[in-house]
Fold:
Amino acid sequence: MNIILLGSGNVATHFGEALVKAGHRVTQVYSRTYAHASRLAGRIGAEPVAELAALDRKADLYLIAVSDDAIGRLAAQLPSSLQGLVVHTAGSVGLDVLAQPQRRYGVMYPVQTFSLAKAVDFSKVPLALEGSDEQVYTQLEQIAVTFSGRTFACDSKQRLAIHVAAVFVCNFTNHLYAVGADLLDRHGLAFDLVRPLILETAQKVLTYQPREVQTGPAVRNDSGTMEKHLALLADRPELMSLYQLISARIQSN
Amino acid sequence: MNIILLGSGNVATHFGEALVKAGHRVTQVYSRTYAHASRLAGRIGAEPVAELAALDRKADLYLIAVSDDAIGRLAAQLPSSLQGLVVHTAGSVGLDVLAQPQRRYGVMYPVQTFSLAKAVDFSKVPLALEGSDEQVYTQLEQIAVTFSGRTFACDSKQRLAIHVAAVFVCNFTNHLYAVGADLLDRHGLAFDLVRPLILETAQKVLTYQPREVQTGPAVRNDSGTMEKHLALLADRPELMSLYQLISARIQSN
Structure:
């Protein structure tokens, strides 16, 4: 399978490396900034390209992994003579932004958080797939199973729901970690003290549903402890609001 | 070391098993409800006791692991002739609730979440220690290192701060997992889809500080994506508030 990557950031890099590892050829990496294209292309044995006109028209797959708001614009600028599939990788962008007469297009959305500093085992990343028709879907699935251990069909609305859920369980959760780090720091304590707790909390829901393992003063209706906590946060009204809002939600669940 | 456990729940059970594994003798388990005392005592080779008057006065350590609001009451009812240390295990309860003339007392607070259904490796649980005097502290440390890989000194105010931080990084985080599970369920999707993401999010902060690895639309100021997310939550005003509150906090950090 000959693949062209459009994008050179985090997601493009993780896709590129997973595809090459699975035995595919990434022939070109496109970025508006040549140095960025060149950096990723060098890592995966591809040709860097900074002009859309220089794209090979004969690739099997054009994989768009640029920022969400740039996907539609880039897809509209692609040469109309492309034979291969045009696919984006975003959670919150509909399939339809890729639509063009005669084009075959789809989505391959990895439900995972990527950072350049940390390798991710793509075989454990669920891949949400959507195709412009059945045949495209089947092709996407054939590609996906070569590097992901888990693929599933998902329309654009469902994909957006996954993306919102991901914001809660990943981005917002990380913010709660930051709140904890800040509280500890203000009391002369290291964040390291709660790292085993953070890991255990995550590991628990790998086998249980979150509601089944909810713990803490809110779910126990332990108002004495909650009052002590709020007293400790007295000089931080924003944190008090957050504490009260989430506690009330836990209690009403 | 001869130890008596007061309490028969989650925390008492995990302490009891860790102490026995470390080679200590738990001679008695006290609970007001004999059947509860008996259940835990049977697991760790101790005598079950339902009356405080039946407590052996010669133990080295009386470890109180009952609900937070019961600690002070129980400690006040203990026979005044006890020779050993009287120690509680709670995050949000001060050392002073144990105070009595002639008594030697302290706190041993495990920074971890325990559930009966899941074993915890106590050697990885940080133990916050506080003693009524230097000598007590030293004794507590000698006991603690036999079953915890990590002990540290911590006064009652700091311990409360750890407990509040734990609520944010554990209890509230678990609630965000529940929000994600609920969102997915409403769209016909399994919670299992975000489990790898949850684990990766936790694992990332095992080596990084949370602020360094914050991702998502809020930190990118991606208002287009945030608007799509809020539109998906339009029929759930409480979730919209939570989304907006946490996003605003991330943006102002």
User: Anything to note?
Assistant: Chain A touches chain B through 90 residues (CB under 8 Å).
